[in-house]
Amino acid sequence: MLLGSNPLIQVTPGLMIWTIVCFLIALFVLKRYAFGPIQKLVDERQQRIRRALEEADEARDEARELLEEHRKLIGQARSEAEEILSEARQVGKAMQQRVKEETEVDRQRRLEETKRQIEAETRRALEAIRSEVAELSLVAAEKVARKSLDDKDQRRLIDEAIGELDFSVLERND
């Protein structure tokens, strides 16, 4: 087999020219009608991808800002909650102290009232005892004197008897 005998390997100048002309026409048609629109579609897709990436970066930055803002708001809310809780504790303590003071004032008032009542009752009892002692003294004086005394003598005897009695012992036992 000779190299020149195969028709596919043989160099034929007319066929070569027509092959080059057809190739150039096909290249021109492809460039004009296929490569341009394909390149345009590739460029548009590349622009869309670039815009999508930029938007994604912007969205990520915005999400980071929102996250930081959210964290700040949570921190503020926690500090406000702590302030409110602290204030509520202070109000509770103040109310508790006020109730305690009011209770103490009421207790002191009742204690003073009870003391006044006891003193009044003690005075009434001492007056009753004095009156009774005076009556008994009068009866005893009448029996001793065996006569009825007039008002002036009765009064003098009562005053003398009361003057001799020591009521301070009764008053100290309250």
Write structural notes for this entry.
With 174 residues, the protein is mostly helical. Helices cover 87% and strands 0% of the residues. The chain has 3 helices and no strands. Helix 1 crosses helix 2. The radius of gyration is 63 Å and the shape is rod-shaped. The mean pLDDT is 86.
Radius of gyration: 63 Å
> What's the N-to-C terminus distance?
155 Å
Q: How many strands in all? A: 0
Mean pLDDT: 86
| % residues in beta strands | under 5%
- Strand pairing plus helix content: what structural class? mainly alpha
Order of helices and strands: HHH
Individual helix count:
3
Biggest beta sheet summary: none
- Gross morphology is rod-shaped
- Oligomerization: single chain
* Range of helix content: over 70%
Task: Give unreliable regions as ranges.
Answer: none
Name the descriptors:
mainly alpha, 174 residues, rod-shaped
Question: Could you give a quick summary of the protein structure above?
Answer:
The protein is mainly α.
Topology:
Blueprint: H1 13-145, H2 151-164, H3 168-172
